[in-house]
Design goal:
Strand order of the largest sheet of chain B: 1-9-8-4-3-2
Distance between the termini of chain B: 5 Å
Strand content of chain B: over 45%
Order of helices and strands of chain B: EEEEEEEEHE
Strand order of the largest sheet of chain A: 1-2-3-4-5-6-7-8
CATH architecture of chain B: 3-layer Sandwich
Structural class of chain A: alpha/beta
Number of helices of chain A: 13
Number of helices of chain B: 1
CATH architecture of chain A: Alpha-Beta Barrel
CATH class of chain B: Mainly Beta
CATH topology of chain A: TIM Barrel
CATH superfamily of chain A: Metal-dependent hydrolases
Mean pLDDT of chain B: 87
CATH topology of chain B: Rieske Iron-sulfur Protein
Shape of chain B: globular
CATH class of chain A: Alpha Beta
Order of helices and strands of chain A: HEHHHEHEHEHEHHEHHEHEH
Oligomer: heterodimer
Number of strands of chain A: 8
Shape of chain A: globular
Number of strands of chain B: 9
Radius of gyration of chain A: 20 Å
Strand content of chain A: 5-15%
Largest interface: A-B, 20 and 19 residues
């Protein structure tokens, strides 16, 4: 009954090399068991995890498809979406000719866990799991250094443990940190990432314990998913204005799944106010938009869909053709098809940069 | 356009659907209470497989706080981005003026009337005793 149909053109297009900057492999807590001490395994059985929001075992907002996943991504052999490497190969890696993919595991990873020591133990286990169950079997999949980002000291330990290991592509944050990302409590993490030569990826979601808006929790999922970019704007402004890039000139931030059409207006407004209030932030030696263009990369998914595609091109032009990285978000419901996501009018050169060239340069994979 | 046998009628009971291959095209055939409809399986938004979506109803509102749920099972919701299409017409409920799922004519024909024509049985052995679902594509 379930005939998977291959479009005839896929074979030809698959020759385009694709570097997918956002893939979400799924592991069960039991998969992390080999890398957790008896102490933490026992603790998890007794007390469980505690995210910074209520309803620990569920999402703060229900999703629009089960487990926020494509309905066709549940493996035929059973298990959760993106938990079966063979099916991920068939449905995604091989179908689209993915040359490299970056794994950004979302749970269980311990990120945002209230108990710092448990957060660190789970992050370590999630990193070992990415290597053993995924990268070792499929070297195209590069790992993220998952860190207990609410505790700088423990996060730095995990980054240093992974420094120099080329199986890891970047250090991973979720965007809903408990304080704005530019605050100094996070600076040791940036320092360790720079020392390790790793970019810092910031993927939307996470649980800060605070609502998306400063007027409480929105009523609808459509608001939550749309406002990820709004909430991330505050952290982008914070990173710039607090001076993180003056302190760490080598710091590279990748914004993942946040959209990108909002970046120009954020840059314009910051620049306008900076001209008026330079003496409030004298540590900024350049216009905020210059830091924005120099230190940030953006992933494409969920691709902006403007009524007039040229408007998207204009925004991409402002951000910079060397700053935009293709991402699919496989297996999630708002997945972007690699062959259909980019505006059709893009030149081959720009297409090549977005599909692969920019990510290879940033992550230094050749 | 040519007629293609895609299933025996009993193979697609009311409320179910079947994915068929017709001349290399994937077409999903729905049975809504005994009436058959066929749409191109490829979602016109971003290419998801409509066959893997969920069948739902039509939710309409003429103002905040007032809702009407009608036509249960007559809307197919794409398994990826959730775009909804009217199974009867292919019309998009997200962007009706610009997007439509391609629709194909479907008929039910007696096996005896089919054997003379150049019909292609894609997925079922053709016998003349039954009624068959035929897609014009």
């Amino acid at each position: 009954m379930n005939i998977e149909v291959r479009q005839p053109e896929r074979g030809a297009k698959a020759r385009v090399k694709i570097f997918d900057c956002d893939i979400h492999p799924k592991s069960a807590l039991e998969d992390l068991r080999p890398y957790l001490s008896n102490r933490w395994w026992s603790y998890l059985q007794t007390y469980g995890q505690r995210q910074r929001h209520g309803y620990v075992k569920g999402f703060p907002y229900p999703k629009s498809q089960p487990l926020a996943s494509r309905r066709d991504s549940w493996p035929p052999g059973g298990g959760l979406p993106a938990s079966d490497l063979d099916f991920m190969r068939e449905q995604h890696l091989d179908l689209y000719g993915i040359e490299y993919g970056i794994m950004n595991p979302l749970s269980p990873t311990g990120q945002g866990e209230q108990n710092d020591e448990l957060s660190a133990a789970l992050a370590f286990a999630a990193n070992e799991d990415q290597l053993a169950r995924w990268n070792a079997r499929e070297p195209r999949l590069k790992a993220s250094v998952v860190i207990p980002y609410e505790n700088g000291e423990l996060a730095v330990q995990e980054i240093r443990r992974r420094a120099g290991d080329r199986r890891f592509a970047h250090v991973l944050f979720l965007s809903r940190t408990s304080e704005l990302l530019g605050k100094r409590r996070y600076w040791p993490i940036f320092e360790a990432a720079v020392e390790a030569g790793l970019p810092v990826g910031v993927h939307v979601f996470g649980s800060s314990g605070r609502p998306m808006s400063n007027s409480g929790w929105p009523s609808f999922y459509i608001e939550e998913i749309t406002e990820h970019s709004a909430s991330l704007q505050a952290s982008v402004a914070s990173l710039i204005v607090e001076g993180a890039f003056e302190r760490y000139p080598e710091l590279k931030i990748v914004l993942i799944e946040a959209g990108f059409a909002w970046l120009p207006s954020l840059g314009w407004r910051l620049d306008q106010n900076w001209k008026r209030m330079k003496d409030e932030v004298p540590h900024l030696r350049r216009a905020p938009s210059e830091y924005l263009r120099e230190h940030f990369w953006v992933s494409t998914q969920p691709m902006e869909e403007a009524e007039d595609p040229d408007h998207v091109i204009d925004v991409m032009q402002w951000i910079g053709w060397d700053r935009i990285l293709f991402a699919s978000d496989y297996p999630h419901w708002d997945f972007d098809d690699p062959f259909l996501a980019l505006p059709p009018s893009l030149s081959e050169e720009r297409r090549g940069k977005i599909y692969s060239g920019n990510a290879k340069a940033l992550y230094r994979f050749e | 356009m040519a007629k293609h046998v895609v299933a025996a009628v009993g193979e697609i009971p009311p409320g179910t659907r079947k994915l068929a291959q017709v001349n290399g095209r994937a077409i999903v055939v729905f049975n809504l209470g005994g009436e058959f409809f066929a749409l191109n399986n490829r979602c016109p938004h971003r290419g998801g497989s409509l066959h893997h979506g969920s069948q739902t109803g039509l939710v309409e509102s003429d103002g905040p706080g007032r809702y009407c749920y009608s036509r249960p099972g007559e809307i197919i919701r794409c398994p990826w981005h959730g775009w909804e299409f009217d199974i009867r017409t292919g019309q998009s409920w997200c962007d009706p003026s610009r997007v439509r799922a391609r629709r194909y004519a479907v008929s039910v024909e007696r096996g005896g009337g089919l054997v003379a024509g150049p019909y292609v049985a894609e997925t079922v052995p053709v016998t003349v005793e039954n009624d068959y679902v035929v897609v014009d594509a």
